[in-house]
Structures
1.
Amino acid sequence: MTIQASLARLADMFAYPLRHSHYVELVNPLWTTHKLMARVISVQQETDDSRTLTLRPGTGWRSHRPGQFVRLGVPIDGQRHTRTYSISSAPNREDGCITVTVKAVPGGRVSQHLVQQVQVGEYLPLGEPQGEFVLPESMPVRPLFITAGSGITPIMSMLRNYVQELEVIPDSVHLHYAPHPREAIFGSELAALAASQPHYKLQHIYTREGGAHFNAAQLEAVCPDWRAREVWACGPASLLEAVEAHWHAAGLDHQLHVERFHAPIAISTEAATAGRVRFAASATEAASDGVSNLLRIAEDAGLNPKHGCRMGICHGCDTKLVSGSVRDLRNGTLIAEPGDTVQVCVCAAVGDVELAL
Ligand code: FES
């Protein structure tokens, strides 16, 4: 055991039933070890409805890989909400900070709060970097990036990392969709990269100014060798569905990496039944609207459930149903047998429900 660890253990004995880290938090929230916090260092308006927050993570932060996302806690009116955002900065910045770039979603309370309200100096709970939407670490690739709207954020981290680490962006093609130039997040930075990096070919497509949405002819024109490239695509569901269908028809699904903001939802939300969710092991209860996934409800209630992908893939969030029933939001399957496994990231409560969590 190191001297620091021994001292921390000794301090914990005096701080019992809390840990010394809880008292340290009162002095500087970034020094705590029982949870990870970040301080808002600066905010920068990107477009009318989006802005970049520069965050200084506290003790315990480990650097991300370009393309990964983080969970951000956002206190609003005394209640903690949690959302995930792709990191838009390159890893290992000299100042030790990271950036997230948030677009205000109409009706989205948390995104609007981050874009309009959050102030420099605030402390926000931060999660570990996560996600598999990353470039291979060793193998060189010839990427094709397809992005729309705020789907640019993980790709921006990759491009900035290329420039920071290699000074050169390798042979890459980038299709980026935005309604208008003024709504293109990082529009001028991307244009500057395209002008200074000879191997980076950028095609901006402005869909409300005559530009077509993703289609086969457009892809062929912009990137004739698309079949030979590995693809990273991020954006709204309609774009990703079109891209997936195109690569699937070509038998090239294995070359496609897709990052969604949400798991695909297949069920109608009109028949949702609101109720109460009880998390048995945590002795916590929260309201459910019958639509929100149970992971988000748990996190908003201040819990920190284990999870991974938040997309229904990894089973890192599995728990057991104690009573009541839940619905799988991807396909409508009802899970109502006590003891059944529930993937909380893609299931919503149907009325009152109790989970082992
Ligand atoms: S977090 Fe991966 S399946 Fe729920």
Note: The first strand starts at residue 37 and ends at 47.
2.
Amino acid sequence: MSLPGMFGRDLEDTDASPADPLALLGMWLPDPADPVKPLMTLSTMGLDGYPDARTVLLSAFDGRLLRFHTDARSRKASELAAVPRATMTLVWPDAARQVVVTGDVAPEAPAEAAETYPTRSRALQLLAWLNTDELAARPAAERQAAWARFDAEHAETPLVPPSTWVGFTLAPRRVVFWRGHAEGPSNRIMYTSGEDGWSIERKAG
Ligand SMILES: Cc1cc2nc3c(=O)[nH]c(=O)nc-3n(C[C@H](O)[C@H](O)[C@H](O)COP(=O)(O)O)c2cc1C
């Protein structure tokens, strides 16, 4: 079954609860070869005890781990160093679908993280170099001049990732698939990982 927007595919029989949530997740996510990556809300445990959240790109899903990339100096990186757990929320309103994935986070090896950098747009590659608090504090004209200067100075050769470019993987422990319906109640399937594999519960939406 094909659905609109960035949504991938769904089961023909949405009453079915496949045993493996990661296979279903792979169907819901866009084709890995699609250069446009889905957005998600990445929630972490704040160092002050309050939750923290922001939007990031889901760089990849290999059928087991979900990957995202960021700056080593970012708040999320500090929070994940303290508590390596996170929740990813992806929503496709046009398809009436949401998936919430919670799990354990680990840093990627630098060589692995570096492989994603060339797949980002030139603007995002430049941003990885220039997105500092120091520059953010400068007036807009100065920020834009610094950007144009750096871009021109590095026009001849492809950019390499800065040392602050880092990647993380999330290994799912809980996966909750939400489906809405125009003429009926929404509905969730919640998968929780345990010693005997995945347990499955049907929940109200
Ligand atoms: C559409 C969109 C996509 C974004 N993608 C990323 C991303 O892939 N990685 C990233 O580090 N920040 C991304 N950001 C910026 C984050 O939302 C956030 O502002 C930044 O990473 C700093 O977050 P932190 O201070 O909580 O660590 C994106 C923001 C938007 C609005």
Note: The mean pLDDT is 96.
3.
Amino acid sequence: MADTTVLIVGGGFAGVTCAQHLAKHNVDVILLDQNNYHQFQPMLYQVATAQVAAYDIARPLRGIFHRDKTVDLRRTAAASIDPTTRSVTTASGSVLSGEYLVMAAGAQANFFGTPGAAEHALPLYSVNDAERLRAHILDVLDATVDRPKLVDRGSLNFVIVGGGPTGVETAGALAEVLRDVVPDRYRSLAAPAKVHLVDLGDVLLAPFSDKAHTYAAKRLERDGVTLHLGVGVKEVLQDRVTLTDGTEIITRTVIWGGGEKPADVIATAGLPTGRGGRIDVQRDLTVAGHPRVYVLGDAANVPGADGVILAQLGSVAQQSGAWAARNILDSIAGKPGRAFRYKDKGIMAMIGRNAAVAEMGPHRHEVEGPVAFAAWLGVHAMLLSGIRSKIDAFIAWGWDYFSKNRATAVVDGPDAARIEWGDDDHGERPEFEPHPAGS
Ligand SMILES: Cc1cc2nc3c(=O)[nH]c(=O)nc-3n(C[C@H](O)[C@H](O)[C@H](O)COP(=O)(O)OP(=O)(O)OC[C@H]3O[C@@H](n4cnc5c(N)ncnc54)[C@H](O)[C@@H]3O)c2cc1C
């Protein structure tokens, strides 16, 4: 459609889906992302625990849109957003604008001001985070083989902060790798590794049912995870973490899954924010007073049909992206936007091989174990298929994992995540750049 440009900030589930729908109608789109790839966040912890490679869960944006001639991709960070002029100033100082602006910059880790967390904890929000964490885990294991006394300095204690899906899934996967794979590959380790999970709440997987809370806790405890529930993190130091009940855990690995907040650039728009610092949007996904500005996915408080804010989920982001595109097409055609209707597929979390919890559909039909695992796989395959055509690798991973055909693999990490042990080691930790393969 000539003369109308839609400027989209963020190539996550929401931004990519919106651009894909607009491209089908030949609308000119500028899609801007700080990375040159789209990432599949639900599988970040599999990368962090060396079960899959980064290129299995990231896909170059230029590959996704190679047939869409109306989509102009820009790999650049948005530094600030002006909703009045529907324009974005990039980190390099150029200004881009559109007749419509879609803000879909997602979220980032929220440390809630916990002293030392931003400096010493490892968040799990991007492919870079996952690769850094994987390299860090491999580094502490290798260092401990080399210098067994590091066990006394917490090298084999792994602390995960957050008892929501991210924390539970990471704890389950890490415990499994440390139990099933590490003793075989690191035969001379002086002691078994320990996983601790800390959460301020009294239960795991709070948005799920009581039954799921109990199931997740029992399953993790069975896998050797020590739960610290009803306890907060007071401080994260380079060599330990202290909890609000006075517990001190000597460790070099604190993984942060303790909450999220919108990407920094979202606040620069100066739009009204609500719960979680996210931008409140109207039922048609536009911002009040800005009829051609849409905020989607994790950056927004997206209301469901009952007005209740929907959770920050891939399916919410994806569906809001498709819906915004339809409303933009209607608006171009001079029609009013329609209120977003979310098709609720439920909520689910995978705790480990053969163990998951799923509450399916709007009525939250509850399943656990292998059936829930299959449901997780089905729903995530659907989510992935919206972005990429080939999901065979994902399905193969899922079923091999489920059926134990494939051992969980510890792959070589970049030789880089040097840890400051504070004595003879002065290595620096360099930055990582993932290199997603193929398109
Ligand atoms: C570890 C983890 C596990 C998860 N597991 C599940 C799950 O199992 N099921 C599920 O449904 N959901 C899951 N989620 C949530 C789901 O991934 C998110 O809800 C979804 O990705 C949100 O989509 P989005 O498009 O809003 O943002 P994102 O997917 O985060 O995309 C935002 C994009 O904006 C870009 N960006 C940010 N800032 C800028 C800037 N200044 N300039 C340019 N670009 C920028 C980013 O690079 C990114 O590409 C998980 C999330 C995490 C972190």
Note: The longest helix spans residues 127-146.
